[in-house]
Design goal:
mainly alpha
Length: about 110
């Protein structure tokens, strides 16, 4: 007798709404973390391009965009400084670790001597 394999029932059903929910959750997580520098830099470039292309912007719109651009530039500078500081902390931690690893045999020798 030849046995036929039975297909196991699929418990997970995919529909069009489930993928949208997952994407929404991912975007919420990014928003809570504060996002990255990329979108801020992109917005700065967009505003600068707009200023180069259109000279006929109303004064109030131009002022609002300039303020927005200045705020984004400040935020980018703050985030870059934070990332530099984290990098230096990590580097200093590594230097301390290797220094202790190097000094350990000398400490043992001095204790036994």
């Amino acid at each position: 007798m030849a046995r036929t394999k039975k297909k196991k029932p699929s418990f997970r059903k995919f529909d069009s709404t489930s993928s949208g929910v997952n994407q929404q959750r991912k975007s919420e997580k990014v928003g809570k973390q504060g996002g990255g520098i990329g979108p801020l830099k992109q917005r700065i470039r967009d505003i600068e391009r707009l200023f180069r292309q259109r000279d006929d912007l109303p004064a109030n719109v131009r002022v609002e965009l300039e303020r927005e651009m200045d705020a984004h530039k400040h935020e980018v500078a703050v985030k870059e400084a934070e990332s530099r500081q984290k990098e230096m902390v990590k580097r200093y931690h590594m230097v301390r670790f290797f220094g202790q690893k190097y000094a350990h045999p000398f400490q043992q020798r001095s204790r036994h001597a």
